[in-house]
Structure formats: structure tokens, C-alpha cells
Amino acid sequence: METEEDSKVNSWRLCSVQQVEDFKNLLRIFPLLSSGVLMCTTLPVISTLTILQTLTLDRRLGPDMKVPAGSMIVFILTSTAINLTLIDRFLFPLWQKMTLRSPMPLHRIGLGHLFNMTGMAVASLVESRRLKLAQTHSVLDHPGSVVPMFVLWLVPQLILVGLGEAFHYPGQVTLYYQEFPKPLKSTAAAMISVVVGFAYYLSTTVIDLVRRVTTWLPDDINNGRLGNVYLMFAMMQMLNFFYFLFCAKCYKYHSVEGGNKNSDDESSKS
Description:
The protein has about 270 residues and is mostly helical. The protein contains nine helices and four strands; from the N terminus they run αααβββααβαααα. The strands form two sheets. Strands 1-4 form a two-stranded parallel sheet. β2 (about 60) and β3 (about 65) form a beta hairpin. α2 (about 15-40) packs antiparallel against α8, α3 runs antiparallel to α6 (about 155-180) and α5 packs antiparallel against α6 (about 155-180).
């Protein structure tokens, strides 16, 4: 005869079929989640390093007005806000009209990978131009001197990163919320915050390692190779993108697929 105490012990040792399936779903989505960590390093890296670049550039907007170096991140936030509206109101409805299918969360995340990677590559090119101008005008011999290059040259890389954020951030939130097991829906909504938190720690670790091992990031970036740092992160993003493509190809939707089938049926009926 099984006692009440024995039943309590067995409940901890034995799992239901649903619990096993939920755990398998978590294991299936974990590779996609891990690929998001490196992608999310773009925002902290480019926000920090752009401020360092801004301090060396011509920030004058008039005789008595300068662009504050810390305000450059506004271009990322503005780009994200504008592109979110354009994507949701125009691009995705057009996509659904042409393909008769709603864009999947992995499509959004994949585009976010591409734009973030492109933003890093553009940042490397802009930095190469900035450093070349610094060498041409002998700025390297005068620490603290201003490079004759207008600060708005940094805007394209920030716009691209903002566009990447507009794609991948909602895509990750949607993917985790729809694919996580029902008992973990509240946890799923917070997973993007966990990913971003790990990304900030990772970016700090990598930058600190670069400063210790190389001479790319000295106190005066005019004597360094900041473009190599951007290029290194762009290469890391590219490898991470291939890793994401492999994970996405192997992944089979658990919840989203059913929702898309229903939407396809409704669109065909209409």
C-alpha cells in the first residue's frame, strides 16, 4: 500500500508525458536563443564605440552649437521607431499579399542578423576613412585634435543597426512567446531581456580582451585601429549568422505553424 509520503517522492522522480515534451521543446529552441546573444552585442558595442568616434570628429552645427557625443544613440532609437512602423504597416502586409503567408519570426530574426552585420561593416569603412583623414592632417601628432570629418558620417551605421533592431527584437519576442511551453509563457516574455543581458556582458568581455591583447583600442583612438574592432565583430556576426541559418533550417515550428495555417485558410476563403 503506497503511503502519501511515497506518492510525494514519486511525483518528484516521475515526469508526465507533457512535461517531457515541454522540456524537449526548450532544448529545440535553445540553439536559436544562443545565436541571439552574439547578435545583440551589436547595440552596446556600436553605441559605446560611436561615442569615442564622435569625440574626435567635427561636431559643430553652428558658431555656438555642438552635437553632444552621447546623443548619437538617438539615431538608433529613431531608426528603430520609424522602421517598426514601416515594417508593420507596409512591408509585412505587402509580404502577406504577395506570398499569401505571414512572415515567420525566423524571417524577422534573420533580417536582423543581416542588418546588424552590415552596420558593423559600414562602421569599419567609416572608421577607415576617419583614420585616413587623421593621418593626412597630422592629427596623430596632436592628441585631442579634431579630425576634419563631419559627425553625421556616423549616422548610416546607426540607422542600419536601428533597422536590424526593428527586425530581430520583435521577432525574438514572438518566437519565444509562441514556441515556449504554456507553463513557461511568462518566462518566455522575459527571455529577450535575458539574451540582451548576456549580450552586454559578452560585449564588455570581448572589448576588455581586445584592449588587453591588442593595441587596437588605446586611450587615443587616433593611434589605434578601431576599424579592426568593428571588422572583428562583423566577422563574428557573419559566422553567427551561418550558425543561425543552420539552426533555423533544422528547427520545426511547434506553435507558429498552426497559426499560419489558420491565417492561410482565412485568406484563401476571403
